[in-house]
Predict the structure.
Amino acid sequence: MKVFDHSDINKSLAAILFSAPKSDKALSVINESAATYGIDYDSLLQDDFKIMALSASGITQDLFYALKDQSPFSIEEWALLLHISKRTIIRYKNDKKSFNSLSSDRIIELTKVIKRGVEVFGDRVKFNAWIRSNCYALGNVKPMYLMKNATGIQIILDQIGRIEHGILA
C-alpha cells in the first residue's frame, strides 16, 4: 500500500473540494492541479483510504483556512461545529499545528456537505441562504444547527439529495 504524504493530500484537497466545475475546462484545471500532487480528482473523495490518511495525519492550518474562506461558516461557527473553542483554532494557527484526527474527519465531512450543497443549489450564496434558514422538512430547524454530529451531517446530505430530486424540502 502506498503511503501518502499528508501535505500533498492537503494541497490537493484544497484545490479540489471547493471547485464546483461548471465546464470540462474547469474540471481539466482541477485534474491538473490534483495530478501535480499525484492524486486525481475523480478518486480523491471516493477513495476512503486517502481520506482516512488525510484525517489521520491531520488537516493543516493552511488547508483549514482555505476551506474556511470558501465556506459559509465564520471561525466561530466552525468552532461550534468542531466542538472546540475559537481560541483553540487560533492557537493551532499561531502554532502551525494540524487538527487532530477527530476534528480533521469532521472538517472533511462538513466540506463534503458544503461541496454537495453548492453543486445542488448552483452557487454558494443560495446554499448559504438555505443552510441558515429554517427548513420545514427538518422540523423548522436551520440545517446548520444539525451539522454538529455525524447523524446530523447525514440528515443534511439526505435533505440536499431530496432537494436535488424535487422532493419536499
Notes: The CA atoms of residues 131 and 143 lie 5 Å apart. Residues 20-34, 36-42 have pLDDT under 50 and may be disordered.
